[in-house]
Amino acid sequence: MFRGLGIVLIVSAFFTAGLSAAEYEVGQKNKAFTVESLKIKAGDIVSFPNYDSFFHNVYSLSPVKIFDLGSYPKGQTQKVKFEKPGKVTVQCAIHPDMKMTIDVQ
Known about the structure:
This protein is of the alpha+beta class and 105 residues long. Helix content is 15%, strand content 47%. It has one domain (23-104): Cupredoxins -  blue copper proteins (Immunoglobulin-like), CATH 2.60.40.420.
């Protein structure tokens, strides 16, 4: 009777372990993102640390993922989880030339 329960627990633990999200970093340095494009999987997290001595405001108006992290100074990091597949254009509201693309698979 307990033998079947043990198999269920092992299988459940195996599938749970396979569902963990990866975390990526896209820094902000010299009024630019540290990468122009990034490929991730749905459910993954991207952190946006500010390495510049001035504020940045990371946001996206892409239908796949709309977000606005607000203005934050050097040394702070904001994170975003990307749940749906598709292309996401990320920009900085303070520095209009800052732009990158995240391809969520």
